Amino acid sequence: MTPHNEAKIGEIAKTVIMAGDPYRVKYIAENYLENYKLVNNIRGMYCYTGEYQGKKISVMAHGMGIPSMGIYSYELFHIYDVDTIIRVGSCGAFAENIQLLDTILVTNSYTESNYAYSFDGKKCNIAYSDEKLNDIISKIAEKKDIKLVKGTVLCNECFDPYLPDKEAIIKRAPKDIELIASEMEAFSLFYNAKREKKKAACLLTVVDIPKEEKGMSAKERQTSLNNMIELALETAKQV
After folding, report:
1. What pLDDT, in 10s, does the model give residues 78-95?
2. What local confidence, expressed as pLDDT, does residue 76 receive?
């Protein structure tokens, strides 16, 4: 057990699906898992372990932002010996060809954060998801006729709708990086996975298009992301 997780060793599955919102985690457990049990509730960061079509899977909240994801994913990989984490989250889209409710598979995450330097002194601002895990996700998406948009996503330390100049951060990115969307957690997940020699992937549903001032309510964000959730669960079943 850790200061942030009261689950006992063995109570968390080798494969974990993570979401920022604890209520989204609760939604996944109640609607998709069988024989599920709440194994962590410290700080309201729910973690449930149950079965999805016979496969033991855990779903856990990670909160908001790089540091929060950094803590929870590190503990899962390093202390609970989790092999695979698949994040399911929401994002705002930058690319003009992306629409509300599109599903993004993050190939790599770019950040201006100093998370890597703070952690172990590495000057690293881009981290990659696991290619083999992404291949599994892609094949399942094709079979289920779920369109995936793949690309590099900004891992921001600020909630981008609140930024006074949304274009500035895009312009500051290296010229060889095309940012298609923005979220707040993938970098520390991918970076921790690489350090611990584990696997990580990130699926995102587009819930905001800042340029067009389009968005969804908090309730819609919580319950209407089923394509992404089902894709993550089917992938978890195969790893």
Report:
1. 999 999 999 999 999 987
2. 98
Residue of higher predicted confidence among 29 and 171: 29
Contacts of 103 (CB under 8 A, 6+ apart): 141, 146, 147, 148, 149, 203, 204, 205, 206, 227, 228, 231
- pTM for this prediction: 0.94
Of residues 21, 130, 160, 208, which has the active-site annotation? 208
Residue 225, domain member (yes or no): yes
d(CA 195, CA 221): 31
| 6 within domain boundaries | no
Active site residue 208: yes
Q: Can you give the residue range of the structural domain that contains 65?
A: 15-238
Q: Does 9 fall in a domain?
A: no
In whole angstroms, give the CA distance from residue 18 to residue 73. 9
Instruction: Report the candidate in 181, 127, 191, 175 with the shortest Cα–Cα distance to residue 150.
Output: 181
* Domain count across the chain: 1
